[in-house]
Amino acid sequence: MPYMDEEIAKMLRKERMKEKEKQQQQEIEQEKEKINEEQLAEEMEKGVCFLFDRSFRFSQKIIMNKRLKVYIPDKKLEIKYNFQELFVAGENAYSFGLNYALAEDGTPIQPWNTYKKNMQDGMKEVNMKFKWIEEGCVLNQENQLHYMEFLSLTGLGTIHNHMYMADTKYGRLTINLNYLHEEERYWRPLVQVMIKKMEVL
After folding, report:
1. How far apart, in whole angstroms, are the C-alpha atoms of residue 102 and residue 135?
2. What are phi and psi of 170, to 5 degrees?
3. pTM of the model
4. Which of 28, 54, 67, 97 is the most buried (most CB within 10 A)?
5. DSSP secondary structure code for residue 67 in this structure
6. What order do you get walking across the sheet with 157-168 strand by strand?
7. What span, in angstroms and rounded, lies between the C-alpha atoms of 187 and 28?
8. Coil, strand or helix: which one is 76?
9. Helical (H) or strand (E) element with 55
10. Which one, of 99, 51, 53, 49, lies nearest residue 73 by Cα?
11. How far is Cα 39 from Cα 83, in angstroms, rounded to an integer?
């Protein structure tokens, strides 16, 4: 009998978790409807975005040997690498990570399932788990960006990742933008505007 009670309790917990996730998703959808992307884009150009109850500082940067114009969060930005083929930075005040890479690689973009498998295989030893959210394509100028959105479940917390890939006139552009998942309501719309405002020069 105690065993059955345990099983029932597990099932009830699982149902409650599902209900909570569904409710959170509904709240996110409702918030998305209130967001004005054009206004956010204008604010980003001016240097400060206002979203719900917070403000976020941004600056325009020309990176990768004048090949890419980007808008990135810039309150306490720490640039780790800044080369023609790689730009890596962390925004410490916002717990936001940026990674832009250019590679002259003629191989076609693989299906996301291939990248998922490679990530899972590569992270087996550190026991990192992934939760896949969404994948698709968006347009930026004449460039078609393939994107994948996913969570990395780590011992230090859950990281929300936005990965983009496009073939440009300079080669394969790969972007990974990430932040703490608990900040999704702010950063998800900001990331979308960042990608729309990016320019391949």
Report:
1. 21
2. -95, -5
3. 0.79
4. 67
5. T
6. 77-82, 86-91, 96-103, 171-180, 157-168, 143-154, 129-140
7. 12
8. coil
9. strand 54-63
10. 49
11. 32
d(CA 87, CA 79): 8
| CB-based contacts of 148, cutoff 8 Å, min separation 6 | 112, 115, 116, 132, 134, 135, 163
Contacts of 111 (CB under 8 A, 6+ apart): none
Here the tokens at position 161 are: 């990742």
Residues 132/147, Cβ–Cβ less than 8 Å: no
At how many degrees (to 10) do helices 37-46 and 184-197 cross?
70
Determine what percent of the chain falls in helix, strand and coil, rounding each to the nearest 5: 35, 45, 20
- Residue 117 tokens read as 């498998």
